[in-house]
């Protein structure tokens, strides 16, 4: 049997650190979601963090690790579609570090504003996340800044604390649906499940327009895609991460692809059933559960509402029945 990615003690230490800056997020079973899905549905509300998304946890743990292990580093550089950048800017600036953040052209206006408000030096570069990421890593090496990749062990240890909270509160879930971008969320969920010795199935979710993780698992090797054009920007990734793939390819039960229309319908359902905002990636897990409602009928399902940072114009369009075109 393969050893868990983290021990329970390592995750509990991470949770203790995270909880010095934010309380555990709630998990609720919403009756209107259960009515729609035909099963008990527990929502882990990662939209209720200091940045409105789960990524805040990884910023706390990674920057703490960086300050302890590399105290002379003057700052960080990273790439993002928004939530990871908010997390890193928030934690880095609080630690007295500079934070240079690369985003692709045409990135979310409101996420960009939030990153700047947290102190990021924001730079637009390239047509998509993966191009911005390559530039960020080049600049890190050239200028002596610490390169924060989209997937790092200390990031995952922090992110896994949401799953530790969720499984501690609801250890008997049959399945948990988790969106996949670069993979920190699903890998953290798998790590927490394994550290606690639970049997819960972890089901990954991708956009039909950004299927690199699903295609890679099906092929048994890393598969890049030419584009990743989805309004669920947190999942808009063309190039998989090897370390993440090594975990979710073995630890996930399956990976489900959802359409832009299914994601938009899940955003509407979250609003009408719970009055919570969900961005595209945040609604993807519920979209997958709704797609699989016959399979899950009568069971106990968890869904990760990973973030609620959707631009106002996009949200209004979704509520009017028009998924954003990207």
Kindly summarize this structure in a few lines.
The protein has 326 residues and is of the alpha/beta class. The protein has helices at residues 8-18, 31-37, 56-69, 83-94, 109-117, 129-143, 153-169, 184-196, 212-219, 242-251, 260-274, 280-291, 293-296, 312-319; strands at 27-29, 40-45, 75-79, 98-103, 121-124, 146-148, 175-179, 201-207, 254-258, 300-305.
Number of domains: 2
The side-by-side strand order for the widest beta sheet comes to: 1-2-10-7-8-9
CATH architecture of the largest domain: 3-Layer(aba) Sandwich
**Rg calc:** 18 Å
As for the CATH topology of the largest domain, it is: Rossmann fold
Helical content stands at: 40-55%
| Main CATH class of the largest domain | Alpha Beta
Please indicate the percent range of residues in DSSP E strands (runs of 2 or more).
Answer: 15-25%
Structure description:
With 326 residues, the protein is α/β, with parallel strands linked by helices. The protein folds into two domains: 8-53 and 153-319, 3-Layer(aba) Sandwich (Rossmann fold); 56-148, Rossmann fold, CATH 3.40.50. The protein is 48% helix and 15% strand. The protein has 14 helices and ten strands. Strands 1-2-10-7-8-9 form a six-stranded mixed sheet, sandwiched between helices. A four-stranded parallel sheet has the order 5-4-3-6, sandwiched between helices. The model has no long low-confidence stretch (mean pLDDT 97).
